[in-house]
TrEMBL record:
Binds the cellulose synthase activator, bis-(3'-5') cyclic diguanylic acid (c-di-GMP). It holds the Pfam family BcsB. Signal peptide: none annotated. This is Cyclic di-GMP-binding protein. The keyword Phosphoprotein does not apply. Its main location: membrane. One of its GO terms (biological process) is UDP-alpha-D-glucose metabolic process. The keyword Membrane applies. It is found in: Cell inner membrane. It comes from Caballeronia telluris. GO terms for cellular component: plasma membrane.
Length: 825
C-alpha cells in the first residue's frame, strides 16, 4: 500500500466501507485469465508482437511488462487544458493502429468495443484532488481503482505525466510504477528532462489487476553519492492528476441470480455515475410510479456519492445494456417476454441476443402487487435467490420515526464513531498519513442558537514523541478548522515511573480523551469530520540514515458525537436544506409524509426527473422511499397533510398559476412572474446566523414572456395547510430540463442552491428571492421566549417594563394586605 502525501477525495457514504485493495488472491485472477486465453489469443498475440518491437508511437505492448516508452516533454500550458490528447499503444480492438485518446475532465462512461468496452480514467476521477507529491529518498503515492465483478481487464496502459527535481542523480535515481505491489515499469530520470513536464506510456500486465487495486508511483531519489539527508527538500517529484489509466474490459458470463443483486445493475466497484433505464409498458399509473420511486430510491441509496439517473422509457426498452422493467401479467413493454405471474414477483433474465445485458423484472398481476414487489426488492433483497421469486407476504412491523434515517446521525442518543466508520478507517500510520475521516449526515433543522456547538467525546491514541516538537492532532469539519490538540513528548527525567507504565504501552503509545465542540457554522447536512495526526519529522541531518516511519495515530471507536440536546426548529423556505439533504421530505426516511405532484399530462421527462429525485432522497437517507405518494395536479387537494414536491413546466403544471400568490414564481405558458429581493446582491449563509435565516422583503415583481426559460427551483409554504412545505422543480423539455438534472447531481453546484428561488442556466446558479419565512419544528416555551426576545430589542424593553409593573403591583398588593392586617391588630 502506498503512503498518502496529497489530498484524496473520500467519497464513500456512511455505511459504505472503503474497499481493501488486493483482497482477492492473485491466483483467482490468473485462473480467469487462463480461461480467457482462447477468446483473446489473437489480439494478445498482436499486442505482444507490438511490445517486442517498440517504436515512438507504439512504445509498449499489452500482456507483458516491456521497457517504458520514450519520454515526451510537455508544455505545462497544454496539461492545464480541460482535455489532453496523447498517443496510446495498440489495443486488441484497433487492429494494431495507434489511437489518440481524449483524457476527459470527468469520469468517462466508457466506449463499447467488440466483446467488451474501453474506458479512460484520470487520476482526478480516481480521487486525486491535487497532483501527487513524492518526497524524500523513498517517497510513494498513488490512487485506488476497482473493476466491476462482471468484467475482467484485458489491457491496461498508464499515461503518466510527471516532473522531478533537477538535483536527482540519474545513475542512482528512478521512478517505479507499481500495481498492487508488482513493478510495472522503472522510469529513468535523465538530467535533460528534469524540472519539465514529461509524459510516458506504461503498459500494465492485466494479470496483476484484481477487483480492488492500488496504482503507486515511488520515487527512489538521491542527490549525492556521499552522506545525504533523507528529508532534503531537493528530493521531490510530482505526478499530475491529469495522468490517466486506459483500460479495456471483457465481459464475464454468469447465470442470472437474485442473490447477486444489486449486481449487475449496480456494482459498488464501479466509480461511474449509475445510469439505469426504467421501462414501463404504457403510461404508468400513480401506484406504478410509486413502485418505480421505491426502486429508484433503493438504487440511489446504493450509488451514494456517484449519483444516479433513471431515464424513463414507455413501451420501448433500450437497445442494449441493463434495465428495470415494470409490467403486469396482461401489460408489458414490446419485445420483453415475462414469465407467468402468480403474485408480486421479482426476476432477473438475460436479454435476447444480440443485445447484451439483463432485465430486472418487477411484476404483479395488478398495480398493488407491483408496488409490493418493489417494496420487497428495496427492503428484502438480501433474502432473495434464484432467477425468480414470488412474494407471498410483506408486512411492516414498525413505522418509521422522524429523523431515524439510517444515514443520518441519531438525534436521541450519543452516536459511537464505530457506527460511522470501520475500525481500520480510524487508524493512520506514518508521518505523511492522510486524515481519519468520518462522514456526518446531520439533520439541517437542529436549533443550535447560542450554544458552544455539538459535543464530541473524543478518545484517541498517539505515539509519544522522543522530544517536544510541533506534533498535533488537528481537527476540522469539511474545510473549517475546529481545534488542535498537542501531541506531547514523555521525558524520562520528569515522569513518575508508576504513572508512566500505567498510561504508556510497550509500543510507546498513549491513550487520551478530550471533549471538543464543533461550531454550528460547520455542521451542514453533508459534513465530514477530519482528524489529522501531524507528526513532526525529526531532523536527523546527514549520515544518519532514513527516518523510521514508526508513528501511529488511532481514534477510539467508542468516541461519541451527541446531537440529543438540540431541538428541531428551522426557518423555511431553505433550498439549501433541500438540495443537500432532501429536507423536509427526508424527515421520514420512507417519505410517508411526501406527495409528488406531476402535471396532468406527464411524460417521460417528468417521470425521469421524479425518479432522479427519488434516487437523491435514497442517497440522503440510505433507505428506499417505500411510502411516497404520487398524484396529478387535479388530485393535489387530497394531500393537504403532506409536504409537496411539484414537477412540471409553466403551461403544463396548473399549480404554478393557481398558487401564484403563495410562491415567488408563477407561470402560465410563456408568461412568467418573478418575485425579486435583495438577496442576489448579498453573500448569505442560509443555514446559520444569529437568529436563523435573515429575510429581506420583496423589492419587485418582474413579468415577462419567454419561449425558452431557464430551470428554476422554488420553495414556499403549502397553500393547503400551515406548516407544510412545497418545493417546485420547474423546467421544460430540452436544455432547461438537462440543466436542472445536471445541477441536482453536481456536488459543486449544490452549495449554490439557496434561498427560496434559484435560477439555473447551464452551470450557473443565481438566487433571486429569499421568500416569506415560516417555521417548522418545536421549541420549548423558555427557548422560544429567549430566541424571540433576542431578535426584537424593543420588545425586550417593553417586556421588561411590563414585568416590572406586574412585580410592582404584586408587591403593592402584598404590602397593602400586611398594612391592613397590622391596623386590624
Amino acid at each position: 500500500m502506498g503512503k498518502s502525501f496529497s489530498k484524496l477525495r473520500v467519497d464513500h457514504e456512511p455505511g459504505e466501507r472503503t474497499p481493501r485493495f488486493c483482497e482477492r488472491p492473485l491466483g483467482r485472477v490468473l485462473a480467469v485469465w487462463i480461461a480467457l486465453q482462447t477468446a483473446f489469443a489473437a489480439p494478445l498475440a498482436s499486442a505482444a508482437t507490438a511490445a517486442s518491437a517498440p517504436s515512438a508511437t507504439d512504445a509498449t505492448g499489452v500482456g507483458s511488462v516491456p521497457a517504458p516508452s520514450p519520454a515526451v516533454v510537455l508544455n505545462p500550458a497544454t496539461v492545464a487544458q480541460p482535455a489532453l490528447a496523447m498517443p496510446v499503444p495498440a489495443f486488441s480492438g484497433n487492429q494494431g493502429k495507434p489511437l489518440t485518446v481524449r483524457v476527459p475532465t470527468t469520469a468517462d462512461p466508457g466506449t463499447l468495443v467488440p466483446g467488451g468496452r474501453r474506458q479512460t480514467l484520470t487520476f482526478a476521477d480516481l480521487g486525486a484532488l491535487d497532483p501527487l507529491q513524492l518526497r524524500g529518498t523513498d517517497g510513494q503515492n498513488g490512487v485506488p481503482f476497482s473493476v466491476r465483478g462482471d468484467e475482467v481487464v484485458t489491457a491496461a496502459v498508464l499515461h503518466l505525466i510527471y516532473s522531478y527535481s533537477p538535483s536527482l542523480l540519474p545513475n542512482i535515481s528512478q521512478l517505479k510504477v507499481l500495481i498492487n505491489g508488482e513493478i510495472a515499469a522503472t522510469l529513468p530520470v535523465p538530467r535533460d528532462q528534469a524540472g519539465t513536464l514529461v509524459a510516458r506510456d506504461v503498459a500494465i500486465d492485466p494479470r496483476f489487476i484484481t477487483e480492488f487495486n492500488h496504482l503507486n508511483v515511488q520515487l527512489i531519489g538521491h542527490y549525492t553519492q556521499q552522506c545525504e539527508d533523507p528529508s532534503n527538500s531537493t528530493l521531490w517529484a510530482t505526478v499530475s492528476n491529469a495522468s490517466s489509466l486506459d483500460l479495456s474490459y471483457a465481459f464475464l458470463a454468469s447465470k442470472p441470480d437474485l442473490a447477486a443483486l444489486p449486481a449487475p445493475f449496480f456494482d459498488r466497484r464501479d466509480v461511474r455515475r449509475l445510469e439505469l433505464p426504467f421501462v414501463f409498458a404504457q403510461k404508468p399509473t400513480s401506484q406504478t410510479l410509486e413502485a418505480a420511486g421505491s426502486v429508484a430510491s433503493w438504487f440511489g441509496s446504493l450509488a451514494g456519492y456517484r449519483g444516479a439517473v433513471f431515464p424513463a422509457q414507455i413501451d420501448n426498452a433500450p437497445l442494449s445494456g441493463n434495465a428495470v422493467i415494470f409490467a403486469t401479467s396482461d401489460s408489458h413493454p414490446a419485445g420483453v417476454e415475462i414469465p407467468p405471474v402468480s403474485g408480486p414477483t421479482i426476476a432477473v433474465v438475460d436479454r435476447p441476443a444480440p443485445a447484451r445485458g439483463r432485465f430486472l423484472l418487477v411484476l404483479g398481476r395488478n398495480d398493488t402487487e407491483l408496488k409490493t414487489a418493489a417494496r420487497a426488492l428495496g427492503m428484502g433483497q438480501n433474502a432473495l435467490s434464484g432467477a425468480s421469486a414470488t412474494i407471498t407476504q410483506l408486512t411492516d412491523l414498525q413505522p418509521r420515526r422522524p429523523y431515524d434515517a439510517p444515514n443520518w446521525l441519531a438525534t436521541d442518543r450519543p452516536v459511537r464513531f464505530g457506527e460511522l466508520a470501520d475500525a481500520r478507517e480510524l487508524t493512520a500510520t506514518g508521518y505523511d498519513a492522510d486524515a481519519v475521516r468520518v462522514n456526518l449526515r446531520v439533520p439541517p433543522d437542529l436549533f443550535m442558537w447560542q450554544t458552544k456547538g455539538v459535543p464530541i467525546d473524543l478518545g484517541y491514541r498517539y505515539t509519544v514523541r522522543p522530544a517536544p516538537d510541533r506534533s498535533s492532532l488537528n481537527i476540522s469539519v469539511n474545510n473549517g478548522f475546529v481545534q488542535s490538540l498537542r501531541i506531547p513528548a514523555v521525558s524520562a527525567s520528569t515522569f513518575d515511573l508508576g504513572q508512566y507504565f500505567s498510561r504508556v504501552m510497550p509500543d510507546k503509545t498513549v491513550a487520551a480523551r478530550r471533549e471538543i465542540y464543533v461550531p454550528p457554522l460547520l455542521l451542514t447536512p453533508r459534513a465530514q469530520l477530519r482528524l489529522h495526526f501531524h507528526y513532526d519529522i525529526p531532523k536527523t541531518g546527514e549520515c544518519t540514515g532514513r527516518v523510521l516511519d514508526n508513528v501511529v495515530g488511532a481514534i477510539d471507536p467508542n468516541s461519541t458525537i451527541d446531537l440529543s440536546g438540540f431541538p428541531h426548529y428551522m426557518a423555511l423556505p431553505d433550498l439549501a436544506a433541500f438540495a443537500n439533504g432532501g429536507f423536509p421530505f427526508t424527515r421520514l426516511a420512507d417519505l410517508s409524509q411526501t406527495a409528488v405532484i406531476l402535471p396532468n399530462d406527464a411524460g417521460s421527462a417528468d417521470y425521469s426527473l421524479f425518479l432522479l429525485e427519488m434516487g437523491r432522497m435514497g442517497a440522503s437517507t440510505g433507505y428506499p422511499a417505500t411510502n411516497v405518494a404520487v398524484a396529478s395536479a387535479d388530485q393535489v387537494d387530497q394531500f393537504a397533510d403532506k409536504d409537496l414536491l411539484i414537477l412540471g413546466s409553466p403551461g403544463r403544471q396548473p399549480l404554478l398559476q393557481r398558487w401564484s400568490k403563495s410562491m415567488p414564481f408563477s407561470g402560465d405558458g410563456d408568461a412568467r412572474t418573478f418575485e425579486l429581493t435583495d438577496v442576489a446582491y448579498k453573500v448569505v449563509d442560509w443555514w446559520h446566523g444569529p437568529h436563523g435565516v435573515e429575510r429581506s422583503p420583496a423589492r419587485a415583481d418582474l413579468s415577462l414572456v419567454s419561449s425558452s426559460g431557464d430551470a428554476l427551483i422554488t420553495g414556499f409554504e403549502s397553500p393547503l395547510k400551515k406548516g407544510r412545505s412545497a418545493v417546485a422543480l420547474i423546467s421544460a423539455a430540452g436544455q432547461s430540463d438537462a440543466d436542472l438534472s445536471a445541477a441536482l447531481l453536481d456536488n459543486d453546484l449544490l452549495p449554490e442552491i439557496q434561498g427560496a428561488m434559484a435560477v439555473i442556466h447551464g452551470r450557473s446558479v443565481t438566487v433571486t428571492s429569499n421568500g416569506e419565512a415560516y417555521y417548522v419544528g418545536h421549541l420549548s416555551p423558555m427557548h422560544y421566549m429567549r430566541w424571540a426576545l433576542s431578535s426584537h430589542p424593543l420588545l425586550l424593553v417593553l417586556s421588561g417594563l411590563l414585568a416590572a409593573l406586574i412585580i410592582a403591583a404584586l408587591f403593592y398588593r402584598a404590602l397593602r394586605a400586611i398594612a391592613a392586617r397590622r391596623l386590624r391588630d
